[in-house]
Write a structure and sequence with these properties.
It is a single chain. By secondary structure, the protein is mostly helical. The protein has a single domain, classed as RNA polymerase sigma factor, region 2, helix turn helix motif (Rna Polymerase Sigma Factor, Chain: A), CATH 1.10.1740. It has five helices and no strands. The longest helix is centred in the N-terminal third of the chain and has 22 residues, at 26-47.
């Protein structure tokens, strides 16, 4: 019987690629974005539902800009994963984009 080997897609970026991205390597930066863009876009889409695609795309892009600015501080040998760090950039971006978001019913009804 012939067996086909399938490559398991990486769920985290490896340390050498992170170091190359820190040094400004365009290929490594592209790998980082391609690996995490689906997760970031999905999370931003859920959080900004109804805001329009342009706002969601801008916020996702801003999230990556923040990640790249802070990437040199990321400890690739530490316990934290880059996917966690990427998702933690999002709430800071939400404060600026979501500032006009309506309050919940609980706080507006008295």
């Amino acid at each position: 019987m012939l067996r086909v080997a399938y490559a398991t897609p990486a769920t985290e970026l490896d340390a050498p690629t992170v170091r190359r991205a820190v040094r400004g390597d365009a290929d490594a930066s592209r790998v980082l974005v391609e690996l995490y863009q689906g997760r970031v876009f999905a999370m931003v889409s859920r959080m900004l539902a109804g805001r329009g695609r342009a706002t969601i795309e801008d916020t996702a892009q801003d999230t990556f800009l923040q990640v790249f600015r802070q990437l040199a501080r990321f400890d690739v040998a530490g316990r934290a994963r880059l996917s966690t760090r990427t998702s933690r950039r999002w709430p800071r971006m939400r404060r600026t984009v979501g500032s006009s978001r309506p309050r919940s019913r609980r706080t507006t009804q008295r």
